[in-house]
Amino acid sequence: MTRRHLLGAVGACALIAHSSNGLRADEIQLDGIIVTTSKVAESAIDALSGSSSIGKEQIDQQFQAARVGDFLDSMPGVVTQENNTDTAQAINVRGLQDFGRVNVLIEGARQNFQRSGHNANGVFYIEPEMIKRVDVTRGPTSVVYGSGAIGGVVAFELLDADDILREGEYAAVRSRTSYGTNGDDRLGSGTAAMRVGNFDIVAQANFRESNDYKDGDGNTVRNTGEENQANLVKARWRPAEGHQFTGSLVDYNSEFVDQTGTVTRDTEVQNNQYTLGYTFARPDTPLINFSAKVYRNETDLDQIGRASCRERVSLNV
């Protein structure tokens, strides 16, 4: 066969291949990738949501977050709303927020605290040092979490002993401190973990404090200081293969001055959260994957109004 005949044969094969699968001879067809965030598999173009996640390493090293908005704002379609005189956080997903439109979960416990006013209605309180991972599901497919939220779901997973203990260790302690010059931001965090057989426990204590910060012109912005104390205890027990019991306690306390226009109030927030869960999952029983959790979430907000300068003068007279 001559060279001309050989090239003609190759060209004919290429034309046949192109006509049969719509590809050129130098193209490679790969299997399609399907990403699902619901319990039923579907193509990506038919899905009404997208998912994003950020882990502890990114939170600490990349963002050095003092608030969850420091890293959540980097996710597509996610915006946080916060007040420089309040430690509360609110999350907006694709333009939807408040009144349960976005389901916020901390260790599986729904955050339903609502406070009507000129700011966000549905808010929550959390210390970033406690967070192991956050998963964001955008869109109305949030029924995967058993919720009717139409905006999406933001699920925070808290630290466990595996994040502190290395392989072969049965006990460890970790500490972290930070300091910021604008407002003298200070953070002190201590975490301890222990593992005994099939039982492990982790405990963390955090103290975060800041004074009034200065704006770009060097002017002090009044009533922007805050003082936060947050504690975490989380335990796990695996009595047999596939069975796991978990329990967690979160204690969050914050003190700050809330300011709306010219009205200022000394504010104290106390948030206590208790969770107890059980899961069963084993590779040899793929048809059984059971998970149950009970929780209680309490948020108390106390405010005392501050008298204005004019009122104070009249009282002194």
Q: Which helices and strands appear, and what pairs or packs with what?
A:
Blueprint: H1 3-21, E1 51-55, H2 56-63, H3 69-72, E2 78-81, E3 90-93, E4 102-106, E5 109-110, E6 131-138, E7 152-158, E8 171-180, E9 185-196, E10 199-210, E11 226-237, E12 243-260, E13 263-281, E14 289-305, H4 309-316
Brief sketch in words of this structure:
By secondary structure, the chain is mostly beta strands. It contains 4 helices and 14 strands.
CATH class of the largest domain: Mainly Beta
Any idea how many domains? 2
Secondary-structure content class: mainly beta
Indicate the overall shape.
globular
Which fold does the CATH topology of the largest domain refer to? Ferric Hydroxamate Uptake Protein, Chain A, domain 1
CATH architecture type of the largest domain: Beta Complex
- Count of distinct strands: 14
Measured on Cα atoms, how large is the radius of gyration?
Answer: 26 Å
Beta-strand proportion = 35-45%
**Roughly how much helix do the residues carry, as a percent range?**
10-25%
Full CATH superfamily name of the largest domain: TonB-dependent receptor, plug domain
Identify the strand order in the major beta sheet.
8-9-10-11-12-13-14
3D architecture notes:
With 317 residues, the chain is mainly beta. It folds into 2 domains: 1-30; 44-316, TonB-dependent receptor, plug domain (Ferric Hydroxamate Uptake Protein, Chain A, domain 1, Beta Complex), CATH 2.170.130.10. Helix content is 12%, strand content 43%. A 7-stranded antiparallel β-sheet has the order 8-9-10-11-12-13-14, with no helix packed on it. A hairpin with a 2-residue loop joins β12 and β13 (263-281). It is globular and about 65 Å long.
